[in-house]
Design goal:
Chain B: It is a multi-pass membrane protein. The complex is a heterotrimer. In chain A, 24% of the residues lie in helices and 35% in strands. Chain A has helices spanning 3-9, 58-66, 108-118, 123-136, 152-164, 182-199, 210-216, 234-239, 244-249; strands at residues 20-29, 32-42, 47-51, 73-78, 81-82, 94-96, 170-174, 202-207, 219-224, 227-232, 254-263, 267-272, 275-280, 284-285, 295-300, 305-308, 315-324, 328-335, 340-346, 358-364, 370-373. Chain C is mainly alpha-helical. In chain C, helix 6 packs across helix 13 and helix 10 packs across helix 11. The chains are: A alpha+beta, B mainly alpha, C mainly alpha. Chains in contact: A-B, A-C, B-C.
Chain lengths: 376, 288, 286
């Protein structure tokens, strides 16, 4: 164990996050590639989420950071320390596991004390640190309980306390809220955010829940097929996805088929459902191979579609159903060429509540769409 | 497809012991099985073929001499009868046990488990006490006036069958019990709701679904009965030799190791063959 | 409903004949329970018969036993042969328990949590001593042990019985290992524990009931084992089962019943312990 970790855990220096550099890392399971040549630099004190569907490689990447999987190639550096071949128990990185992995035969306090005991601290030194860590997650009175006597949310907080008690520079979290119900999950998201802000620890957070990633992260790495598909802030991922996969995975998205009908240096004209719209070249995501007559996909958020009274310059269709969602409603519209569109409209107390039916005309905000070419 | 496989390996392989460490931990077991199991059995079988030049003589002798063929057939026949009896007597016990709850279930389970964990020797001894000339059965029957002369019960094939059925029945009951327990009770209720009587529901639903347990129990009892030594040796007497007691006799009295090795080889092949055939039904362990 | 019952034919379809269904389950259940009761008596009675037999006065086997005496127990505990056989068996069983538990637990851990080439084959091989007839093991072990002086020998017995008991340990320990969350061990490592510390502080306490049950099974498998013991015993080194075997064959006295009762009591106390552990384990994991 490194002496600075020990020092930190004795409260001699304030906790501080450290940067992590992942270079060209790959993990193969036999012929299957779990993680494929990933480069990633995580800033000190950053909250970075690894977001992706199951099997995208996000967990394998996390397991390599924790030292539970050995990379097939590539390197991991923490601050200035090469971690690639350091065994898991010498890394000094905290981790919160999917189902908390609290030791069932130990009390809550013994669980939190375990990392300190393994670091050879004396009993007298351990007690105040455990108390402090439990207080940080508002469980100071629960030290004597068994983990099984706590609720799911409390167990999760014990796991966080155990992972942070030795004041590691980095905290790894493996879908830590997956087992909790929605309301509790949202509460704990805020709690983890607050902890992150007050401790300054670097957090790498694995989740398949895009809403959770958007809520919590400084940056998100969207993973699929073992690669990072896009890395960026929640805002940039939401508004400027660079592939239809990311566009589809984050938030709600409508996809319309269009044909390129005109082209110049700055803009592209696209015919979609009989209407022609003009978009800037900067709205092109991913590959740049557009040519007149080629098909493209237009990705439009439900909030960048709006219903309109007359059919001029709008996509015509039939309303199939309406979904009330509190702050807004979503109209499900089947356009005349068969595409299903979600259209978001603000709701107000003046709404009649009567479901709208019949014909609808949907206008597209050309400035708010993304265009993907050369994909299927 | 590939994604699903990766998902399965995502957490499964994380933090596994390295290969050298795994091998180190398993090494004592590998040495133990190699030296105390594989080596002795191999030496016994080797001796049955190489005496010292290779010969099939010992194996041919088993089928050519009528006395040995007869012992072989009697062993198989006894094992089959014991298996059938254990099934007929054991199935109802497993059935009742699976339906009971609480104390009654514990009591029945105790009645099944206590014999299982009592030495085979003690139980065979008890059968001698029961069946001998002045034993419990004879004295009871005589005091009731059913018979005037003690019957010859001990050292007969019947005695071997009864005692072995008693000794091996728990191995029949426990697998059947566990397969009956795994049948969701809704199925019986559904069948009854659809108009089946209790008997029809049993025949159409419960019995077929407990077949894996029946196979497992029957195979277990049959192979144990085939190779059983203690009970036939004590209760059967010298004129009721089985293949196991014959192997014992060949080694301790006649010192004919090559022939004993051939008999052991036949017993081994039959046993392992049956286990191989019915592998998917078998889960081992004396615990319930 | 009402529309259906207007048609008599459908009404019959709705509820099968009530009379047969009402009578037969009653009688059927009565018969079934009576039959099962008889089978249970058949199972239990011979097992426990040795207890009254060991307390009767007569010096030959007599039933029902007359009088009450502990003299056969006195005889058993005063007899040097019986005592040395009993102690020999107990020593072997304790050694077997320790070695089978250690060997089996380590190997189970390697198979369940490790990456072992040929793990499936090793598992199948481990179970083989349960399947292979004991008479085959007995003569095979005699063949190998006799020339190197391991018959009638404590170490010979410890080796043979460990081989025969290890499957029980592997079965119970593997089952326990598969039940615990593998992340527990990872969490311990992440907290700074070495592999050995993680096993000792986290894995072992959580599989302890399985290890304890395996240890008891190993003890009983050794202590009650008769066939191999019959063959690899010597004139000096003789187990209680071999001594029982000889006396049943040549010298049928109530001392055998006393010795048998001692064996039964040891077995049942230990099995009761396992059941207690198991019920506690069931309560601990809701």
């Amino acid at each position: 164990m490194s002496s600075d970790v020990l020092q930190a855990s004795r409260g001699l220096s304030p906790p501080k996050g450290e940067a992590i550099a992942i270079k060209g890392i790959s993990k193969r399971f036999g012929s299957i590639v779990g993680v494929d040549n990933v480069d990633l630099h995580v800033e000190a004190g950053e909250f970075l989420s690894l977001l992706g569907p199951s099997g995208s490689g996000k967990t394998t990447l996390l397991m390599m950071l924790a030292g539970f999987e050995t990379p097939s190639s590539g390197s991991i550096t923490l601050g200035s320390r090469d971690l690639t071949h350091v065994p898991p128990n010498k890394r000094g990185i905290g981790m919160v596991f999917q189902r908390y992995a609290l030791f069932p035969h130990m009390s809550v306090a013994q669980n939190v004390a375990f990392p300190l005991k393994m670091r050879g601290l004396a009993k007298a030194e351990i007690a105040p640190l455990v108390e402090q860590a439990l207080a940080r997650v508002r469980l100071q009175d629960y030290g004597g309980r068994a983990p099984a006597q706590l609720s799911g949310g409390q167990q999760q907080r014990v796991a966080v306390a155990r992972a942070l008690v030795f004041q590691p520079p980095v905290l790894l979290m493996d879908e830590p809220l997956g087992a909790l119900d929605k309301k509790l999950r949202e509460e704990l998201q805020i709690e983890i955010k607050t902890l992150h802000a007050s401790l300054g620890v670097t957090i790498i957070y694995v989740t398949h829940d895009q809403e959770e990633a958007l809520t919590m992260s400084d940056r998100i790495a969207v993973m699929d097929k073992g690669r990072i598909q896009q890395l960026g802030s929640p805002v940039s991922l939401y508004h400027e996805p660079n592939s239809s996969f990311v566009a589809d995975f984050i938030g709600k998205m409508n996809f319309l088929k269009g044909i390129v009908s005109g082209l110049d240096d700055r803009s592209i004209a696209i015919t979609v459902s009989g209407q022609t719209i003009s978009v800037a070249r900067s709205q092109l995501g991913g590959r740049d191979d557009v040519a007149i007559g080629r098909p493209v996909q237009i990705a439009a958020r439900p909030e960048s579609l709006s219903p309109t009274q007359n059919g001029e310059g709008a996509i015509a269709g039939d309303i199939e159903t309406t979904i009330f969602l509190g702050s807004h409603r979503t109209l499900i519209v089947r356009s005349d060429d068969g595409t299903q569109l979600q259209v978001q409209v603000p709701s107000s107390h003046r709404d009649s509540g009567v479901e709208q039916r019949g014909r609808a005309f949907v206008r597209l905000d050309p400035g708010a769409v993304r265009v993907f070419a050369g994909e299927d | 497809m590939a994604n699903a496989t990766v998902a399965a390996t995502d957490r499964a392989t994380a933090g596994q012991l390295s290969r050298p460490a795994s091998l180190t931990l398993a090494l004592p077991l590998i040495l133990l099985l190699g030296l105390a199991f594989l080596l002795p059995v191999a030496k016994l079988l080797w001796g049955s073929v190489f005496t010292p030049s290779p010969t099939a003589e010992n194996y041919l002798r088993i089928v050519q001499e009528p006395i040995f063929l007869k012992i072989l057939l009697r062993t198989v026949q006894t094992a089959a009868v014991v298996t059938c009896l254990a099934f007929v007597l054991g199935y109802p016990v497993a059935l009742v046990m699976s339906k009971l709850g609480g104390r009654a279930a514990m009591l029945v389970a105790a009645c099944v488990l206590i014999p299982l964990w009592t030495s085979v020797l003690v139980r065979s001894y008890a059968w001698i006490v029961l069946l001998q000339r002045t034993g419990v059965v004879n004295s009871t029957l005589m005091s009731w006036g059913v018979i005037n002369e003690p019957l010859k019960l001990i050292y007969t094939e019947g005695a071997v069958i009864v005692a072995m059925t008693h000794v091996l029945m728990p191995y029949m009951i426990l697998p059947i019990f566990s397969s009956l327990r795994s049948i969701p009770p809704e199925l019986d209720r559904a069948a009854r709701n659809l108009g089946a009587g209790p008997w029809t529901s049993f025949i159409a639903v419960t019995l077929p679904l407990s077949l894996p347990g029946i196979y497992a129990g029957s195979i277990m009892v049959f192979i144990l009965a085939l190779g059983f030594y203690v009970t036939p040796a004590l209760v059967g007497g010298p004129q009721n030799l089985t293949i196991a007691t014959l192997i014992g006799q060949q080694t301790t009295e006649l010192l004919n190791w090559p022939f004993a090795g051939a008999l052991a080889g036949v017993l081994l092949v039959v046993t392992l063959g049956l286990v191989g055939l019915f592998r998917r039904f078998l889960r081992f362990g004396k615990g319930a | 409903m009402s529309t259906l019952s207007e048609t008599p034919a459908l009404d019959v379809l709705q509820s099968p004949p009530a009379s047969r269904a009402a009578l037969s389950p009653h009688l059927g259940r009565w018969l079934l329970h009576g039959f099962v009761g008889l089978v249970l008596i058949f199972l239990l009675l011979p097992t426990l018969l040795v207890v009254p037999m060991s307390l009767g006065e007569a010096s030959y086997i007599q039933f029902p036993p007359k009088g009450f005496t502990l003299k056969w127990y006195h005889a058993y505990f005063a007899d040097a042969d019986w005592m040395s056989a009993t102690w020999f068996s107990l020593k072997i069983a304790v050694a077997t328990t320790v070695s089978a538990t250690i060997v089996g637990t380590l190997a189970s851990f390697a198979i369940v949590r490790g990456s072992l080439p040929g793990a499936a084959a090793l598992q199948a091989l481990t179970l083989a001593p349960l399947i292979v007839p004991h008479i085959v093991l007995a003569v095979a072990l005699y063949l190998v042990f006799a020339p190197i002086g391991l018959t009638g020998n404590f170490f010979g017995f410890a080796i043979a019985h460990t081989m025969m008991s290890v499957p029980y340990v592997m079965l119970t320990v593997s089952a326990s290992l598969q039940r615990i969350d593998p992340a527990l061990e990872l969490a311990a490592l992440n907290c700074g524990a070495t592999r050995a510390q993680a096993f000792w502080h986290v894995v072992l306490p959580n599989i302890a009931p399985g290890v304890a049950a395996g240890a008891v099974f190993a003890f009983l498998a050794s202590f009650d084992e008769a066939t191999v013991a019959f063959f690899i015993s010597g004139v000096e080194g003789k187990t209680i089962t071999r001594k029982l075997f000889e006396d049943i064959d040549y010298n049928l006295t109530p001392v055998i019943a006393a010795a048998s009762t001692v064996m039964v009591v040891i077995s049942l106390v230990l099995m009761g312990g396992v059941e207690w552990l198991r019920s506690r384990g069931a309560k601990a994991a809701p």
